[in-house]
Amino acid sequence: MKRLLLTLLAALALPTAVNSETYLRLGVGSLKKDKTTTEHFSTGASDPPVLQKVIGEMNFEDGLLGDIAIGKEFKNFRGEISFQYHKGKLGDTYASADGITIKTITNDPQVNNLALMAIFYKDFYKEKKISPYLGIGFGYSHFLIDDSETTVGSYTENVDNEASNSFAYTFKGGMNYQINNKFGLFGEISYLSPIDLRGKTTQSEINFSEIDSYVISTGIKITL
């Protein structure tokens, strides 16, 4: 992945003599995350303590996305480095152990996601004022849920949900509207998913399933 990012950075540094243009892209949007399942081990309030597997379910409220990118255009293709920030809030959570499912109580933690992506686009009918495009990208994601206190019955467990950097991928589709040679507008729908997310609870590591994120965004593209 580091090699991929270095390759794209090298492409962005190519001189304009190779018939390319450098651009800056700024976007904002609305983000919807699918629920995720979690898995960890806990003794709960059992006496004597018995370590058992706990399967959880986390739901997310809709959030916001901010995106800034710098890239290079080569005829009908583009490549860019994109930095994205997603902000939201954790919704209802559930825990299931020993065949019993209970709605848990948390301290209403915030959800933050930082992503650094290398994204490649194919533009169609670029000679026209309005043109569609498709994109695919890969990179790193840092997913963070504020530390929370989860209560199941009479037992309260601290959950440190900070996940280490993980691989992420994205797919995009959208439309460009070219105002003039320097400024353009865009609207797009995108999908983003970090994988292999992990955190820690009071007693064990916690594993997250893939978290599918769907984004509707708009913004401005500036040719530098």
Describe it for me?
By secondary structure, this protein is mainly beta. It has a single domain (2-12, 20-187, 196-223), classed as Beta Barrel (Porin), CATH 2.40.160.20. The protein has one helix spanning 2-12, and strands spanning 20-33, 36-42, 52-74, 77-97, 100-104, 110-123, 130-145, 148-152, 155-160, 166-178, 183-194, 198-201, 205-208, 213-223. An 8-stranded antiparallel β-barrel has the order 1-3-4-6-7-10-11-14. The longest helix is centred in the N-terminal third of the chain and has 11 residues, at 2-12.
Shape category? elongated
Output the helix-strand order: HEEEEEEEEEEEEEE
Helix count from the secondary structure assignment: 1
Low-pLDDT windows of residues:
none
User: What structural class results from the helix and strand content?
Assistant: mainly beta
The main sheet orders its strands as 1-3-4-6-7-10-11-14
Largest sheet: 8 strands, antiparallel, barrel
Using the coordinates shown, work out and report the CATH topology.
Porin
Q: Work out the helicity level.
A: under 10%
CATH class: Mainly Beta
Number of domains: 1
* Average pLDDT, all residues: 77
